[in-house]
Design brief:
Number of helices: 19
Distance between the termini: 40 Å
Radius of gyration: 22 Å
Order of helices and strands: EHEHEHEHEHEHEHEHHEHHHHHHHHHH
Structural class: alpha/beta
Helix content: 55-70%
Largest sheet: 9 strands, mixed
Strand order of the largest sheet: 1-9-8-7-6-5-2-3-4
Shape: globular
Strand content: 5-15%
Number of strands: 9
Amino acid sequence: MPASVLYEKDADRSLIAGRKVAIIGYGSQGHAHALNLKDSGVDVRVGLRDGSSSVAKASEAGLKVTNVAQAAAEADLIMILLPDTEHRDVYEAEIAPNLKPGDALFVSHGFSVRFNQVTPPEGVDVAMVAPKGPGHLVRRTYTEGGGVPCLVAVHQDATGKARELAISYADAIGGTRAGVLETTFAEETETDLFGEQVVLCGGLTALVQAGFETLVEAGYQPESAYFECLHELKLIVDLMYEQGIGGMRYSISHTAEYGDVTRGPRIINAGTKAEMKKILGEIQSGQFAEEWIAEWRSGHKHFDELRRQGEQHQIEQVGAELRSMMPWISQGKQRVQDASGG
């Protein structure tokens, strides 16, 4: 049965209009949520740590800015838009003491609630509104009269209105203009982590690097290997994004398509899929979350070393040199960074 999609007609705008909202954090998503809510006529304030570099940015954007504890105390809907690793400490120290029965605690990713980093008290609505796009797009599409699709989910419905409030919030940031899909905290969190680790980030970067290494080790020019294994990837991904896998295959040559359908399964084979299932199990059990939180809290030395190794890979050096010859690739990059607000 296909999932139902909710639009503007399905949202009760009076619910978010009657709330005092605190946006905790002013990074990519934080700036977009805060400004979209403000432009939708919602009473919004931004909660930031004392000394945060984002205080000036938020103030200059015309937003009310205060510290996290005061923002949480003033508001009856608190949206946490901080990195996953910061949720627990900020919640316990500055948000939890200011929660009252009837308040709502929102997140845009279910990680901290799903893995018990944040355990809200009874009497508080707990919901998720997760735009499926980066903050600069959430903001830009809103100002253009559109929006980015959102996922909504309810973890705790203390008032009987948590679902409707989440949809109303999604409406105020532009989500209902594009469509809102209902899910659960577990589904959003587990599929999001799986997609990042197995396909979008982990699987893709490992595949690109291994392909590059194979060609270079066989004696081909690193520049040729870069173009074939990384640069042209955008063409294929854009075709898949716009037309699906079938549309992509229709658009490429018959030679490429035959190589796709006959050789692809030799690379991503039963052994690969078995490892994917193992990774999914680690996510579902909480093993990955425990590992990541422990890594971060211990000073993330192993993570930093892996980062350094990636930065020193030959594909990065070759790519930087080639991209410097193609300035059109970076056009608009600074505008995106400026728009992120953090």
